[in-house]
Amino acid sequence: MTETVEFGHYHLHVHPQPLLRSGNKRQGIILAPPPSREPSINSSDLWSEKAESELRPIDRGIGAWRFLIAASMMEGFMFGYPINYGVFQSYYFTHAPLAGNSHLSTIGTFGTCFYFLGAPIATYLVRKFRRWQQEAIWTGFAISIIGLAAAGWAEDFGSLVATQGCIFGVGLMIMFYPIFNMMNDWFLERRGLALGIICASTGITGLFIPFVLNFLLHKYGPANTLRLSALGLLLLCGPCLPLLKPRTPVPCNESAPCMDYSFLKMPLFYFFALAQLLQGLAYYVPLIYLPSYATSLGLSGTMGAFLLVVASFAQVLGQMAFGFVSDMRIPRLWVDGRVPVHILLFVSTFVSGMSILALWGPARSLGILIAFAALYGMSAGGFAVLWARM
């Protein structure tokens, strides 16, 4: 009768065995390997361990900062261009064939609305097809450049809405959400600061883009300005595309992660969604109409562009400040050590709203408009940085 006794990773098979010189029996012990109990190791496990060991550091290192610089270049020039559409609107309104058209803001609206309204669809597609993120960035970039170049041959208002507005805006939507998804992979503890730097890049480019556009429009006309703009964006942002890579490699056979819809049961989600919707509807109105408003007061187009520069510079300071504060840890004041995002959201929206009521409404001089541009740019611009904490 054989008995089996476990000993470490082996089984001891004990069975009777006859002795050579007597009829007595003794215990014979045979050391045998255990039955197959070790977990099977497949190729995907080995790939995951290897990939994990080869990952670049998060929140630091050359890879993280290289990605941040490339993303800031894309945000600053590609998204900074439609933000400064007010220069185009001011020119269109005072020059044929669109002089006096009351619907010119539609072009700028379509240039940015797809970026925000398309967020739910774009976010879902980025998660579902994560391994195609880089291809999506290249595709969106190409669509935006084509739309802007095609606007140079537009001959009427509807064509400008379709090209400078819709096509350019759809390209931005396809391009930027993979970039933000990669940013979440590269940055964790410094995510607020990273998003602040990326968003502030539109303010940095806003220091000179309005003057450049104003000069080109009066020197070469809108058609050539749009074509030159498309060429300039291609040369400035094209070299950044190869640098926009995810930190975590995506295996070819990875299945799409299941979407967690538990947030739909949280009242706080609807609060944030409503706040972001209302802020998004109002944010670009002052930036689009500020140059036209300055022109209506008798100021020159250069002064209108200067007001956008002031707002852009204030936006840089505000977004970096909000991003830095959102990452701060002050254990003595709050339980988790961080400033509650509700407080930062309130400061951003309250100050920007009051600046419109108290400064822009009664403004009749350049000095008050400058004060409004500075205060509004610093406060309203910080709202987008807080997305990382919502």
Describe the protein's architecture and organization.
The chain is mostly helical. The protein is built from 13 helices and 3 strands; from the N terminus they run E-E-E-H-H-H-H-H-H-H-H-H-H-H-H-H. It has a 3-stranded antiparallel beta sheet, with no helix packed on it. A hairpin with a 2-residue loop joins strand 1 and strand 2. Residues about 5-10, about 15-35 and about 35-55 have low confidence and may be disordered.
Main β-sheet: number of strands, strand sense, barrel status? 3 strands, antiparallel
Number of strands: 3
- In DSSP terms, counting alpha (H) and pi (I) runs of 4 or more, how many helices? 13
Distance between the termini: 69 Å
CA-based shape = globular
N-to-C series of helices and strands: EEEHHHHHHHHHHHHH
Label the structural class.
Answer: mainly alpha
> Unreliable stretches, pLDDT < 50, 5 or more residues?
5-12, 17-33, 35-53
Strand neighbour order, sheet with most strands: 1-2-3
Helix content: 55-70%
Radius of gyration: 30 Å
Question: What fraction of residues sit in β-strands?
Answer: 5-15%
**Mean pLDDT across every amino acid position:** 80
Q: Topology of this protein?
A:
Blueprint: E1 3-7, E2 10-18, E3 25-32, H1 43-54, H2 61-83, H3 85-94, H4 105-117, H5 119-128, H6 133-151, H7 157-186, H8 191-205, H9 209-237, H10 267-296, H11 301-327, H12 341-360, H13 366-380
Antiparallel strand pairs: 1-2, 2-3
In short:
Helices cover 65% and strands 6% of the residues.
